[in-house]
Amino acid sequence: MDSDKYYNYLILKALLSTEGIGSKRVFALLSAFGNPDNIARVSASELQKLRGIDSNIAQRITTTFANLATIEKEIKLEVNKLKEINAGIITFLDPEYPNELKNIYDPPVILYYLGDINLASEPALAVVGTRMASNYGKVMAQKIAADLSANNLMIVSGLARGIDTIAHRAAIEAKGKTIAVTGSGLDVVYPGENKYLYASIARDGLILTEFPLGTKPDAPNFPKRNRIISGLSLGTLVIETRKNGGAMQTAAFALDQNREVFALPGNANSEMSDGTNMLIQKGEAKLVMNADDVIVEFQNILDTARKVKTTPDITLNLFEQQIYDQIELNPVHIDTISANSGISTSECLIHLLNLEFGGVIKQLPGKYFIRI
């Protein structure tokens, strides 16, 4: 973290630690004074000119910055602990902060992460549902999430038991990427049985939270987590849920954020499909039977996001270039690649393996290939 980013984090963290100051007041202060440095220097009388900040709150803010050196000692300890676990920090002011999330009503001021923060800016879909999924829900969640992932949609979920866990694993098995948004600190894995999945996502995907180290997964944290899940995503797909399930809350956030909502229809006699069926019945969600029903809604965005490079980042030999030229945005079968390149199928497979190792193509089920 460079000095400017660290200073912004220090000021914003100090503000959030001040009694009576939450994210909405932080954004009001930023809007009024332009940047954290100005906020740290402003007088109590100037602060009181802002709507919602009385003399008591203004005094607390100025006291916070008068004691900034003491507060910084605690913050430096936190930063060092985050470094020890290879975690990072971004604030709303950093260029890495995801645009989709920035545009929601109440975006988190600070985010802590493990993994590749750039993934949070790629096209994504939230896949959520009940912790007590039926066999039907499990099968459909796995298939749809895998197919979405194979079509370059990032899978975002909450690492909970049931549908969330299945969605994360399906994305990984499809050689895609996934983001887990948690309701606890990065050093608190919840649920415990997902510790290996957590480690896998931290290594190859992204773990994201607005909660500092040591935060336990208390009930009030999960609605906050859910608004981030929907806020990162182009839309939210609900697989199975009761009418009062947490996934319904995520769908409600998505609707408030003007994002698409999709729902898998289910058995009318199953309590686990009451929520999804109600969303469809009320016209709040599009009925989804397969991944294509979702992809068609975002095709233009996906095509723009994955524009093909005319020249890959690695040096190709003559045969690899011939083969690479045959691979497109949409999956192409090995037989088509072989026929169009004039190279035998067996030789194609060898060169395709090299291209895959080079990180410029990806193999999909059924010997289909796609550029990445």
Question: What does the model show?
Answer:
With 372 residues, this protein is of the alpha/beta class. Helices cover 47% and strands 13% of the residues. It has helices at residues 3-16, 23-33, 36-41, 44-47, 55-66, 68-84, 99-102, 135-150, 163-173, 195-204, 221-231, 246-256, 274-281, 292-295, 299-305, 318-324, 334-341, 345-357; strands at residues 87-91, 110-115, 124-128, 154-157, 178-181, 206-209, 235-238, 260-263, 286-287, 332-333, 361-364, 368-371. The strands form 2 sheets. A 9-stranded mixed β-sheet has the order 1-2-6-5-4-3-7-8-9, with helices on both faces. The longest helix is centred in the N-terminal third of the chain and has 17 residues, at 68-84. The two termini are 29 Å apart. The model has no long low-confidence stretch (mean pLDDT 92).
**What gyration radius follows from the Cα positions, in whole Å?**
23 Å
Mean pLDDT: 92
Which consecutive residue ranges, at least 5 long each, have pLDDT under 50? none
Shape: globular
Major beta sheet, strand line-up: 1-2-6-5-4-3-7-8-9
Helix content: 40-55%
Strand content: 5-15%
Main beta-sheet strand count, sense and barrel state: 9 strands, mixed
List SSEs in N-to-C order.
HHHHHHEHEEHEHEHEHEHEHEHHHEHHEE
Per DSSP, the total helix count is: 18
**How many strand units?**
12
Distance between the termini: 29 Å
